[in-house]
Amino acid sequence: MAMKYKGMQKIASYLVAHSSVGRKGEALHILESWGKNMPFIPVPVHSARKRERGYNQSEQAALELSLQCSGKLQTGILKRQVYKQSQTLLGSNARSFNVAGAFEAKNAENFSLAPQDGVVVVDDVYTTGATTSSCARALKRAGFENIKVCTLLYEFPASAAVDMAADKKLGWRTEEG
């Protein structure tokens, strides 16, 4: 929450360094097995949200992961074309509906990538998978074939509601990218 809502974008570096990726754990071995120089594609935020925050938290996470895993940050492939309401209070089905059609992807050839080359979609938090699934569908429509997902945190859906209530009590702004 601090990375997304409190302007603490550099926390992505800390989270990656202290995760199983940064400690040369199982996650790093998995990422490395997908291939060196693999593009890390951040889940995009709408331009209005980026102006509001000043950065994209998923892009910060993708940058740190790409540095740790000898990959490359690849922005510009995915674009959020529609501003959507916050996902934080929505259930699984509503989340999927909320992000349906929200993303558009450019063709792999525009980025000197072969369609069969693997890409890693990076998001900050995985709650239900609705956002990353919507991104993967957009990439598939653009011709990408080997799509992986990596997130910094996994959040149980029930805890998301508890966090949202706590954030509101603290007066934190609670909107999803």
What does this structure look like?
The chain has 177 residues and is of the alpha/beta class. Helices cover 41% and strands 17% of the residues. It has helices at residues 2-5, 11-17, 26-33, 47-53, 57-68, 92-99, 130-141, 157-170, and strands at residues 39-42, 72-73, 78-80, 103-105, 118-126, 146-154. Strand 5, helix 7 and strand 6 form a beta-alpha-beta unit. The longest helix has 14 residues, at 157-170. Mean pLDDT is 75; it is low at 173-177.
Question: What can be said about this structure in brief?
Answer:
The protein is α/β, with parallel strands linked by helices and 177 residues long. Helices cover 41% and strands 17% of the residues.
| Sheet having the most strands | 4 strands, parallel
- How many domains? The number is 1
Fraction of helical residues: 40-55%
Low-confidence stretches: 173-177
| CATH class descriptor | Alpha Beta
Quote the average pLDDT.
75
CATH architecture: 3-Layer(aba) Sandwich
Layout of strands and helices, then pairs:
Layout: H1 2-5, H2 11-17, H3 26-33, E1 39-42, H4 47-53, H5 57-68, E2 72-73, E3 78-80, H6 92-99, E4 103-105, E5 118-126, H7 130-141, E6 146-154, H8 157-170
Parallel strand pairs: 1-2, 1-5, 5-6
Antiparallel strand pairs: 3-4
Main attributes of the structure:
single chain, 177 residues, alpha/beta, Rossmann fold, four-stranded parallel sheet, two-stranded antiparallel sheet, 41% helix, globular
